[in-house]
Amino acid sequence: MGEIVTEALSVSDKWHLKSVDLISTLQHHLEPYESWVVQASVLGDNREAFTFFFPLLAGLHNELGARTLWAAILVEWSNLLLKWMFVGDRPYWWIGETSLYTDETRPQLRKFPNTCEAGPGTPSGHLMMNVAMFYVITRGISTEFIWKWKSISKCKKTVVAASLYFIYFLWIGVICISRLYIQAHFIHQNILGIFMGLVVGNFAWNSPGIVRYSKLKAVLMAAFLITSAVSIYTLLLSKGMDPLWTLPFALKHCARVEYVRVDTQPFFIMTRFTGTALGLGKKLGT
Question: The organism sits in which domain of life (predicted)?
Fold first, then answer.
């Protein structure tokens, strides 16, 4: 890659360039493990919170399952609004569009089917979801199972709990690397995703009433979520901004057009978190 004079660049462009360098390094050194690295983003996909982890946890512990699902709902909602607010590019199309590279210096990085998320990149939704969801799960398992385990000593409980947290941190690290490797995110988008995930996860864990909503409260919550999202969408349109501005870039720069994912589009996401909130409220209210 040719040298680029960075002194006159904006902070965001500097982060973009550093991220591209890191992505290039990761793709070079981790190529023997590529299938595993790419698969991590598949396993950590947001939809798994709704289709796999919630049913599994609800079967083990109703309240923990409900709390985890509320965390997932709040992540989907807040991530959508934040992405509209921050208007962040993704590496896989930014590299092809930026004028910072010439045809000779433009990096040729590998793309994958799950690279092609069509929404804005800031913050990382994968990291928000995994940080928030597994924060609730880790604290829930520690509180409800490990510390109530009567047949082992306090020292052993501490070791088991610490091991669980270590696995949690390790998994978040794997997701970070995977999101960079497949060109889905820049470094700063991952960092912001981790921070916001902790905020949402902490809120979901420390809000006692969130798992005791009546049907009415759940309907009102779902109405608030969808109304706020549609209102922001309408406001952006009224200001001459296109909330779907990223879709042409995704269609242009994905390795294959059919890889562009429908479930990363705003209205699909709104339908998912609103319907889930209504369904959960009906269940909790019975």
Answer: Eukaryota
